[in-house]
Write a structure and sequence with these properties.
- By secondary structure, the chain is mainly α.
- Helix content is 92%, strand content 0%.
Length: 109
């Protein structure tokens, strides 16, 4: 399996782990609220925003990944074009050298 595929698989596993961590946290704070345990407001706000923030982060991750995939195609073509130009220059130079060598051989005869 290519290295990139292994990394993507590891990322997906970590995402699933984060998803599995959010539920117990929300459940615990729900229990605290039900039994009227005092919890700082900032903390309850953070827990309340946790799932939404995680979804936003995953959406951003997907958008960035899609954008990179589109750029990759463009950059791949750009790279191939920039490699093709020096190759054509090299072929032209080799032909010039070959012509020069053959003309030297003609002069020597």
């Amino acid at each position: 399996m290519p290295k990139w595929s292994c990394i993507r698989l590891q990322i997906r596993e970590k995402e699933a782990n984060v998803d599995n961590l959010i539920n117990p946290i929300e459940d615990m704070y729900s229990l605290l609220m039900r039994y009227e345990v005092r919890v700082p407001k900032e903390e309850t706000d953070m827990v309340g925003d946790l799932r939404y923030s995680w979804k936003r982060l995953r959406k951003l991750s997907t958008d960035v990944s899609d954008n990179l995939a589109r750029l990759q195609v463009h950059l791949h073509h750009l790279l191939l074009g920039s490699v093709a130009l020096p190759l054509s220059n090299l072929l032209t130079a080799m032909m010039c050298i070959q012509i020069a060598l053959s003309s030297l051989a003609f002069v020597e005869e």
